[in-house]
Amino acid sequence: MSNRPSTGRARLALALAVLLGGGALTALPARAATAADGLAVQYRTSASGATADQTEPWFKVRNTGSSTVQLSQVKIRYYFKADSSTASYRFACSWAVRGCAAVTGTFGTLSNPTATADRYLEIGFTAAAGTLAPGADTGDLQLRFYRSDWQTLRQSDDYSFNGAQTSYASWDRVTARLAGATVWGTAPEGNAPDPTDPTDPTDPPGGGQTLFDDFAYGSHSDPALAAHGWSVRANSGGPGVPGATWDPAKVTFVSSGGNSVMNLETSTAGTGASTTQTEVLTKSTKFRNGTYAARVRFSDAPKSGPDGDHLVQTFFTINDLKAPMADDYAEYDFEYLPNGGWGEPSNILYTTSWETYDPDPWQAVNQHSEQRSSYAGWHDLVVTIDDSAITYYVDGQVFGTHDARYLPERPMSINFNQWLIDLNGQASTTPRAYDQQVDYVLHVKDQVLTPAEAAAKVAGYRAAGTGFVDEVPAS
Q: Which range among 78-82, 104-108, 151-155 has the greatest average pLDDT?
């Protein structure tokens, strides 16, 4: 990757089973738990010491009732004592029989703190987790949480912790709710987890201001597109083939799967003058740490004409390089090359975190991950940035984790573009055109969400009929 010029690069679950096959989260009707409903929770820990670098509560949830249970209506709470009033925590799923992408974890604060609990971790499930038949259990939920600063945490004084329980057994110091009714366990005194509890789970610590857009516009010239902070590129210059133009008219909005999606078309007839490329970006550079997510459809083949061009299809964040090797530059890329390029013979997906570069003579400081495989079709792309790492996800699975050397020092814009590296992949002068599509984009400021949480947030906006929101303050 070090030989890739900046002007030749792009400018961001789920096996998130929530969205497999291009579907969306399915809203399930709420219902009250009946007398025939019941759950039991088994617990064990694989981090049994009084102190640890992370707490590891593992669970199995069994349906003890006589009717099938929708797991999306199940909530489990694990109660603990924060190590300090300012400590913040992060949730992670190491492995789950139902798939980590179908498991969510959020933190809340108890309204009635006790000597052993003032916070809780609430575990939930997306619709993709499916159902639980009478007598069945979820199988392993191998979960963990840790301090966001990775300081050692003390778990011996946590209400729900039992260091002696290293094999699964019933444990009533965690609670389970089904459709809002508590059906298992005992909460710390004075903290019954009823549905009117004012301390229901909060979002993970942080700012939480959100940008969401489902790209429901009429055309590239729709006044709402500009009013919502987007710029459709028309100015000349890189990246891409010398002499190519950036054509706003090739950015259109079409229907796909019942949703409006943004379509970026790039075309060529084998010369620079015949090449048109497309880019859409935020006018504001106000995005830094937090979660970025987009659902993007990559294409391996043109919609017309001969195949083989060295195409780049992207989702990324970036700020400007103020001087060669400037240390406050930042860029975080998803780049898909359906026909290879940059020395690659065939399709490859890159994720790259940039510290800086010098365009002439070329020098680059970056870290990248790649997978040589076809990614044609819809994919859920997520990148999270906190104070310790940058983590990229594709379809709910970790694609690459890059270290703190590459964290952003200034805010960035959010961008999508599709362009040609060169004209060496296909020598024909027959016109051809390629499409890249974008279903939505989401940014949550200063919060690290799991891919499942990001998908649930998008589903919530859509269920409420919200097509656009921008709460992110100007930098």
A: 78-82
Say if CB 408 and CB 385 are below 8 A apart: yes
- In whole angstroms, how large is the CA radius of gyration of the chain? 24
φ/ψ of residue 75, rounded to 5? -130, 135
Give the position of tokens 């006044």.
223
What sign does the dihedral 347-348-349-352 (CA atoms) show? negative
Residue 318 is inside which H or E element, if any?
Answer: strand 311-318
Distance of CA 454 to the CA centre of its chain: 5
What single DSSP character describes residue 213?
A: E
Q: Are the C-beta atoms of residues 349 and 371 closer than 8 Å to each other?
A: yes
Beta strands at 259-268 and 251-256: parallel, antiparallel or unpaired? antiparallel
Distance CA 380, CA 65 (A): 36
Give the CA angle between residues 266, 5, 278 to the nearest 5°: 15
- Candidates 63, 147, 47, 151; CA nearest to 107 is 147
How many Å apart are CA 186 and CA 324, to the nearest integer?
60
CA distance to 172, 176, 220, 228, per residue, from 211 (Å): 40, 33, 20, 10
338-390: pLDDT as tens digits:
999 999 999 999 999 999 999 999 899 999 999 999 999 999 999 999 988 99
Flag whether the pTM goes above 0.70. Answer: no
